[in-house]
Records
---
Amino acid sequence: MPRKQHRSAQRARAIQRQVGGKYTVLLRHTTLVMTADAPSAARGGTATKSPARDLARALRAAGAVGAAAELEAALAWGAEGDRLGLAVEEADRQQWAAYDSGLSRAHRARWEAAANEAVDVLMNFMDGDYYRQDRAELHAAAHAMALVAGGRAEPDLARKAARVIAQFQDNAESTADAIRGDRPVLLPPLDGPDTTAARAARAAAAALQEAAAIPWRGDEEWTACAELLAKTFRLVRSAAVFWGTGAAPLLQIRLGRLRPAPGGDALGRTTIGWRPGMTETHAWETGRGLWRLDAQRALARDEVQIIAPSQGVLAVARITGITRHGDRYALEGRLLSGDARVGKPTTTPHPSRNPIAYL
C-alpha cells in the first residue's frame, strides 16, 4: 500500500514487478502491518488511528450515505483480507518450525500443505484486486472534497479527506496503481462558492478524478498518473490551512530536566528529558513516551507538539497510534521534520504543571 503501513499482498506484487518470482512464494515472505483492527491499547497492544473510518462517519453525517457505505464496505473487506494475511504468516511460521524441529517428512508435508492452502484462501479472497481498499479511500476523499467544493459540506470534511490523502503522499507511484481501475470517480457537481476553502477542495477533487481516469496501458500512463498525484499531494498539503487543520486538536508534551532513563526503558533510551541543542528526531524520541495519559483523548488529537521547559517548540509529529507499556503509553507517529513551528515559542502555552496537555 502506498501509505506507511504496506499490505502483504501489495508488497508481494511490488517485489514481483521489480525482480520477478512466484507470487505465492513472495507473499509468504512479506510482512503484514495492518491498522484497521490493531489490538486495543487497553489490552496491551497498539491502537491505531483510522482516518478512513473518520471520513466514513463524516460522509454519513454530511448526508453522503452511499459514499460512506461504499467506503465502509471496502474497509471491512480490507480487514478480512488482513486477517487472512495473518493466517498466511502463522501457517508459514508453523511450516518453518516443522522444518527446524526435525519432524518427519510426512509431518512437514502436512504443514507445507496448510501453508499453501492459507495462501490460496487469501488469493481467492483478493481475487486479483489488491488495491480495493486504497482505491475506495481515495474515491471517498475525492467525494468529500467535491461536497466542500459545492458548498454542501463544511470545510472540516475536506480536512478529514486530506488526512486520508496524506497516508498516500509518500509514494505517488504506488498510489498511481491504486487509484486507477475500471471504475471512474463519480463526483457531485464541483460548482459552488468562490471561497478559498471551496476552490482548494475543487482543485483537489478534480485532480483525483483526473488521475483515476488515466487508463492502464503502459509505463507512460503510469508515470503521468504518478506525476499528477504528486502535484495533488502538494496541493492538499498547502491548502490544509484553509480547511481548518491549524485549529485541529493538539496534544502537547512538555519535557522536564535531563535525567537517566529508567532501567530497561521500553523505547531503548539511555536518557530522557530536555537538553540544549536537541534535534527534532531526538526530541520526538524523548517526548513520545512513556507517559500516563488518556489513550482515547490522545488518539483524538491530530498532532503532538513536543516543547521545552521554556515553551519553545522542539518537534511536531502527526499521531498515528499509541502503544501500551505496562501502565504507561508511547505515541506512534510521523515526525514532521522542518515544521515551521519548530524553534519558535508555542502559540498555545502549556496550561499546567502536568507534562501532558490536551489542547
Note: Residues 1-7, 28-44 have pLDDT under 50 and may be disordered.
---
Amino acid sequence: MTTTFADLGVPSPIVAALAADGKTTAFPIQEHTLPDSLAGRDVLGRGKTGSGKTLAFSIPLVARLAAAGRKRTPGRPTGLILAPTRELATQIATALTPMADAMGLKVTTVFGGVKQAGQERAMRAGVDIVVACPGRLEDLMGQRIVSLDDVAVTVLDEADHMADLGFLPGVTRILNATPKGGQRMLFSATLDNGVDKLVKRFLNQPVTHSLEEATSPVEKMTHHVFEVRSTGDKNDLVQELASGTGRRILFMRTKHQAKKLAKKLTAAGIPSVDLHGNLSQNQRDRNLASFAADDGARVLVATDVAARGVHVDDVELVVHVDPPAEHKAFLHRSGRTARAGSNGDVVTVCLPEQRADLRKMLQKAAIKVTPQQVTASSAAVDELVGERAPYREPAPAPAPQQQQPRRRSGGGGGQARSGRGGGQGRGSGRGAGGSGNAGSTGGGRGRGTGGRRSDSAGESGQRVYTSSSSQQRTEGAGAPAQRRRRSARRPAGAPTAR
C-alpha cells in the first residue's frame, strides 16, 4: 500500500507543488520521519544516498515556518539548512524553492566560490530560508550581515561528509548561534567522526529513524567489475561505455584527468562536460545544466566533488574509471544512479595492479560481484551499453586571436633587442651619444621622433622593466653612464642618494 503526502498531513499547497513535479507518493524515509518532523520534534534520520532525505526535511521546514507566520526581517532568516558542498546546497535549494513559493517563503543560497555581493543583497532584502555551506555563512555572520537569532528550524544534511571535510568546528559555532528552543533535524549516513557528539549536544530527545545501514546495497542497482589487461584496453573500454544513448557519469580521481577525458570524448563525437574543483560556480552550473538538458551532453566526467548532492534524473550508468580509495566514496559515487526507485548500473574498471585494493573496498561496502575479464568488444560490454548514440560533430574550437602590432604615437620607433652578447637599440631619429645603434657595450642611447628611448644592456641576464608607455630601461653596463649624466645635472652641494 502506498502512502501519499496528503495522507501524512502535508499542507495542500505543498502537496500541489510536489504533484506538479510528479511527486505524489512518499518514500520510506519520508513516510517514517514526516509525522514526527511536522509535529516539531527533533529528528535524527539515517539512510543511504538516494533515499529521499532532501524532501524528508524540506517539507516540514517549509510547513512549520509558514505556519509560524513570522514577519520577514532583513538579515534574520527563520530557517537554516547546512550542507557540506555548494553543489549539494544548490540541489537542495532547487528542490525546496517550489514548495517555499507555494507557501510565500523566500529561499537563498550562501556558499563560497562566488562573489559575496549578491548574497548580501539577498540578506538585506530579507529571506526566510538560507541553504548554506558553513564557511561563507560564518563569514557573513562575522560581518554582521546575517544573524541566526530568529532561526526556528535548523537542518544538517550529510553531517558525516561535513565531518570528513573538517567542518564540524564551524558547524558547532553556527549551531551555538541558533536559539536553543528551535527544532533541529540531522540527516547522516553514519554517526562516526564526531557526528554522534553533535547529536548529543544539539538535538533534544531526537526521534531516530534508521531505515537501512549506509552500506546496504540498493535493490535496483546492479554492480559490474570489468577487469582489463592494460591502460590502452581501459581507455578503449571507457569510450565504449560512454557511447550509449542514456546519461552516464564517469568518475576520475584527479581534476586534470577529468578535464582531459571530457575533451577526448567530445572530440570523438560523444558530447561530454567535466565537473571538478577547479571550475568556477558559473562553469559548474553551466556544465550541470548541459548534462541535465535533453539536447545537452550525455556524459559527465567528474571527480568526487559530484559524489554527493548532484542529482540528475535518469542517470542509467555510473563508471568508476578510477576506483576510489575509500568505500564511502564508492557508495556515494554509485548513488548517482538507481535513485528514488529507478534502475541503474555501476561499472568499476580495474587494472591488474588494482585488484587487491578493489576487493577489500568492495568487502567494506558489502558489495558482492564477480569480476569479468573484458575488452571493449566483449559481449558483456555490448549488452550493458545497449543502443549507441549517433555521432555528434564537436563544435569547432574558437580561432586564436592574432595579436595586433602596437601602434606607435610618433613617426619614429625605437626597438630594444637584446642578443646573447649584448643589446642593440635602433631609432629612426637623432642619436645622443651614438648614431641610433647601441653596440654590445650598451652605452649608446637611441631616440626616435616619437620620443621613445631605449637603453640597452650589454649582458642578456640583466633585468628589463617595461612601462605602459612601452619605454624600456635595462639596468646593466649602461647604468654608470646614466648616473654620471644625472650627477652632472645635480646642483653643486646636493646630497648623493645611496
Note: The radius of gyration is 32 Å.
